[in-house]
Amino acid sequence: MASYEELLSQIKSLEIQAEDARKQEIAGAIGEIRAIMAKFGITVDDLGGKGKAKRGSVAAKYRDPVSGKTWTGRGRRPAWAVELEQQGKSLEDFRA
């Protein structure tokens, strides 16, 4: 039976071999893809898709009158908004 250290050494060796095999297969796949693209005259632009568009940031709806901090109205209420409501004030009075 192999010792723990020998097994760890074997695992490390196998991980290196697996990574090398992966790199070789990727290189082969890329070569095949390029050959097919050249055969049919396909360009990268023809493949389309520029990725998912990033969402813009949401405008602030409320502003803390003391510190000037803002809140979009989404997610957990900030402490200053909770404090204003506990004082009986409406958040609508503090719209940005």
Descriptive report:
With 96 residues, the chain is mainly alpha-helical. The chain folds into 2 domains: 4-45; 62-94, H-NS DNA Binding Protein. 47% of the residues lie in helices and 4% in strands. The protein is built from 2 helices and 2 strands. It has helices at 4-40, 79-86, and strands spanning 62-63, 70-71. Strands 1-2 form a two-stranded antiparallel ribbon. Strand 1 (62-63) and strand 2 form a beta hairpin. The longest helix is centred in the N-terminal third of the chain and has 37 residues, at 4-40. It is elongated. The N and C termini lie far apart (72 Å).
Write the layout of secondary structure elements.
Elements: H1 4-40, E1 62-63, E2 70-71, H2 79-86
Antiparallel strand pairs: 1-2
Distance between the termini: 72 Å
Counted by DSSP, the helix tally is: 2
Question: Helix content range of the residues, please?
Answer: 40-55%
Q: Averaging pLDDT over every residue, what do you get?
A: 91
How many strands appear in the DSSP assignment? 2
What structural class is derived from the secondary structure elements? mainly alpha
Number of domains: 2
Across the major sheet, the strand order is 1-2
Strand content: under 5%
Tell me which oligomeric state these chains represent.
single chain
In sequence order, what are the helices and strands, one letter per element? Answer: HEEH
Main sheet?
A: 2 strands, antiparallel
Radius of gyration: 29 Å
